[in-house]
Amino acid sequence: MLPPHRIVIVAFPGAELLDVTGPAEVFSVATRVAGPGRPGYTVRIATADGAPVVTSGGLRLMADLALDEVDGRVDTLLVSGAVEVGEGGVEPVLDDVVVDWLRQAAPRVERVGSVCAGAHLLAAAGLLDGLSATTHWLTAARLAADHPRVTVDPDPIFIRAGRVWTCAGITSGMDMALAMVAEDNGPELALSVARMMVMYVKRAGGQSQFSVPLALPDGAAGDPVDELRVWIGEHLTEDLSAEALAARLHLSVRHFSRLFRRRTATTPAVYVESVRLEAARRLLQDSDHGLAEIAARSGLGSVESLHRSFRRRLGTTPAEYRRRFR
Q: How would you classify residue 94: left for phi > 0, otherwise alpha for psi between -120 and 50, otherwise beta?
């Protein structure tokens, strides 16, 4: 039988308690639901010296080991976050001991993630350079200002950039952990865990999970693919097939598709559907248009196509989405 998936969650004084216990409970429930014969998860909490830490709410959190005792195989490393509220607003807390340790330990870990303001620690350790990341919306601007090599998107509940995951804050750590369970074990186990914990498998409780990152990256001016992305957003009802888009750039379909994937990490068809879905989502939120008109305006064509896209990509219906977010 395969060994259990080993998870280490790093905590430090002032950390948000749910940043630690939320993901830990998701992995614990996944192990119990999976039952005998499945590898499951082992979760260990690590602090700088192995001593208990007092979390932001005043509750004391026990540790399983010190940072320098974390050895052997670590499959997933999660870093909790902490903020301080003062006259100048909300400030992320940086624990220098944790940051220094991350620089040494994280490269050996298969999957690294942060919860809430924990993204600031990953960024300080250089682990987010060149990647897209998110954090709590209150500290997102600070993350972007302090780390210009990180593409900060304050909108999504969580972002996966290769082996590095970041999430928006507190309860979104549970959503991210559930997505990790789905990646490790398939959607059936994730669904069972969600039912057990009364969670959404793909949370519909925040609009941000559904948003498409349409903002262009720094240095996008003059890049033909990024200029095409702007054009796509302004011409949703036109022919946006790969053939038509390739023709606009005077490229073969094969070369265009390869160039587009290299720039956006997705295919033209998936990207076009995402942008059209984004437009439909905003029309559902901000207008009284019927579904037929929304389907036409967004470029999805028909009510049936609108329903299919919402079901497949968001796990909900247009009507349910409108009820939640109007």
A: beta
Taking a C-beta distance cutoff of 8 angstroms, is the pair 15, 56 a contact? yes
Residue 115 CB partners (closer than 8 Å, separation 6+): 16, 19, 20, 22, 23, 78, 79, 80, 81, 167, 169, 170, 172, 173, 176
Burial 35-64 (b: 16+ CB within 10 A, else e): eeeeebbbbebbbbeeeebebbeeeebebe
Q: What's the average model confidence in pLDDT over 231-238? A: 92
- The length of the chain is 326
Task: Determine the residue type at 127.
Answer: L
Is the pTM value of this prediction over 0.90? no
Q: Region 1-29: what's the mean pLDDT?
A: 94
For the record, the structure tokens of 15 come out as 């950390």
Compute the distance between CA of residue 72 and CA of residue 13 in angstroms, rounded to an integer: 25
